[in-house]
Amino acid sequence: MSKQIQISSQFDYKIEFSDPPKIKYASLYEFFSLKIWGSLPSQFQRLISKIYAKVFNLRISKHLIKPYCKIHYKEVNYLDQFTPPSGKTEYHTFQDFFVRQFKELPKVHTSHVWPCEGVLCDIDHVSKIQKTNVKGDIRSVHQIFGIDERLICKDYVFTNVFLHNKNYHRIHAPIDGTITRVQYIKGDLVILRPWFYKNNPSIPAFRNERINIDIKDNRDRTWHLSIVGGPAVGTIELPKKIILGAKVSILDEIALFYLGSTCCMISPEMPKQNIKNSLVYMGAEY
């Protein structure tokens, strides 16, 4: 069930909430994800995910697009705002639909925006994010981003946005700035769905493979992004221009997911409107 709360602002902004599904046996799903699937070698997880992802690259899979849209989107003409990727004139596979591109990016009315679309499943000051046990290794939030704990201000804000399969799956720069770090961290591919992990919805971000990108804004503040993979994620792809020292403008594309994903961020700002379990939209005011 979803609901809307009208917020009075100069942009007449609406906050939508996504109530977490009531999973009857959530603890069993968590056990399967972390203790059974998660105990398998990472190479095996990637192999199974790769095989699964290939199904959506088959030509026949394009016939899933229309019924999928009918089930998941209220707008009859939902796809009209998008175009197939890589200059294609039509969707050849379901994967083409999954990595669809906006015909026109949203209009920006602020200096910082949400980099992606999804459910804000976790948010708090860095100092309040609980640690998690990964195969006997107790990890803190800074380890998601692969940096020294001393480099993160405790007053900065951690957010975790879960991108459902139906969401737009391109990640964009939340600010104007300069890329100061790009890092790949190997890891598992445990299930991403936050409602499987009632005590800590960000558990997958602590242990899954991910790409971390730091962007320094024009006030010399660093925004840390962690682009986290999961089961069936065939690839996390970065545009060629996303390299150390590159300048990015707000809403420049910085990453692309091929199936399933989560995007974590540590920022010097608290979101103006959104709270936990609200829906966020790429390009909307952060």
Index terms:
single chain, 286 residues, alpha+beta, 3-stranded antiparallel sheet, 5 helices, decarboxylase, lyase, Phosphatidylserine decarboxylase
Explain how this protein is built.
One of its GO terms (molecular function) is phosphatidylserine decarboxylase activity. One of its GO terms (biological process) is phosphatidylethanolamine biosynthetic process. This is Phosphatidylserine decarboxylase. InterPro entries: PS_Dcarbxylase. Pfam families: PS_Dcarbxylase (PF02666). There is one protein chain. The protein has 286 residues and is of the alpha+beta class. The chain has helices at 26-36, 42-55, 65-72, 94-98, 203-207, and strands at 2-6, 14-18, 82-83, 101-102, 118-125, 132-134, 137-139, 157-163, 170-172, 177-185, 210-216, 222-228, 235-237, 247-248, 253-258, 261-267, 279-280. The strands form five sheets. It has an eight-stranded antiparallel β-sheet, with no helix packed on it. The two termini are 24 Å apart. The model is unreliable at 1-13 (pLDDT under 50).
